[in-house]
Amino acid sequence: MATLYYESDADPSLIRDRKVAVLGYGSQGHAHARNLLDSGVDVRVGLREGSASRKKAEEAGLRVTSVADASAEADVVMVLLPDTEQKAAYDAEVAPHLGAGDCLMFAHGFNIRFGQIVPPPEVDVTMVAPKGPGHLVRRTYTEGAGVPSLVAVHQDASGSAHALTLSYADALGATRAGVLDTTFAEETETDLFGEQAVLCGGMTALVMAGFETLVEAGYQPESAYFECLHEMKLIVDLMYEQGIAGMRYSISDTAEYGDLTRGPRIIDEHVRAEMRRLLSDIRDGSFANEWIEENRAGRPNFLKLREEGKQHPVEQVGRRLREMMPFVSSGKERVEDVSGG
């Protein structure tokens, strides 16, 4: 069984005795910086020149400086810039200011796992990865709760990297919910696989395929939208709260029988074989190299596919229906890019 850490396992004074730089002020950045500040940590925010986030950070009572100055001042540097921008920022503005006793932190292991960033051996390298979007990390903290998080130590130069990382997670509010040990490789590989095969890639492809199948068979696009996309939230919420068995208990016997007998016909051995190929591409670095090269080329394929996705009929129908259902977006917060800044 995995070890879970809670508030009683963390020493809050460890992070309070350090100077922390949070680089980036997107969804995760704003949550980390504000939670740390409210936990009594000496924190500053490092932003790129001309960042639109500067005003928001300052209005939250945070001191804002350049990425280089924040890195120079701090002895704990949390990198929350976009994955594709981290290497350039690290090489130019962070690495020159790292020295013995410093700790370099990440919330996602991509750049360490795939060798884009190689810190000096005298520096601690760790990770605190909340398993939820930044707005939830912030909101639950203000409510006296927290979001479960992963922690990992890639490089323990000081001999106390894990204790410091757990203290940082505590200041985020994560120990209120539970903190789990992992590794940079495990976090990165499982995160990418989950996004590609299930949470994003698998889910959106399944929704679109189901929608297209019903429309091609002559059913109203609106009915297809409700059955293949709108109701998904209801099912996912049940699974989130009660697990798969709890969801099955809550739906009709007809729905459950269809789930148990027809689901395996959709997610069959061919799909599982493709999942294994996706995982292999992640683990051997093929996906990382492809994504790095795509960015170097100006993202032509990414932008083309993004635009094509926006034009899919399920999006056209959905926009029209959601305008007729104001309750869907009632009280909705604007969620910024998780790695913005």
Helix and strand layout, with pairings?
Layout: E1 4-5, H1 12-16, E2 19-23, H2 27-38, E3 42-47, H3 54-59, E4 63-66, H4 67-73, E5 76-79, H5 83-94, E6 103-106, H6 110-113, E7 124-130, H7 134-142, E8 149-155, H8 161-172, E9 179-181, H9 184-199, H10 201-216, H11 221-230, H12 232-250, H13 253-266, H14 269-283, H15 286-296, H16 300-310, H17 313-323
Parallel strand pairs: 2-3, 2-5, 3-4, 5-6, 6-7, 8-9
Antiparallel strand pairs: 1-9, 7-8
Report on the structure:
Helix 4 packs across helix 5 (83-94), helix 9 (184-199) runs parallel beside helix 10 and helix 9 packs antiparallel against helix 14. The protein is built from 17 helices and 9 strands. It has 341 residues and is an alpha/beta fold. The protein starts with a strand and ends in an 18-residue tail after the last helix. Helix 8 (161-172) links the parallel strand 8 (149-155) and strand 9 (179-181). It has a 9-stranded mixed sheet with strand order 1-9-8-7-6-5-2-3-4.
Briefly summarize what is shown.
The protein has helices at 12-16, 27-38, 54-59, 67-73, 83-94, 110-113, 134-142, 161-172, 184-199, 201-216, 221-230, 232-250, 253-266, 269-283, 286-296, 300-310, 313-323, and strands at 4-5, 19-23, 42-47, 63-66, 76-79, 103-106, 124-130, 149-155, 179-181. By secondary structure, it is an alpha/beta fold.
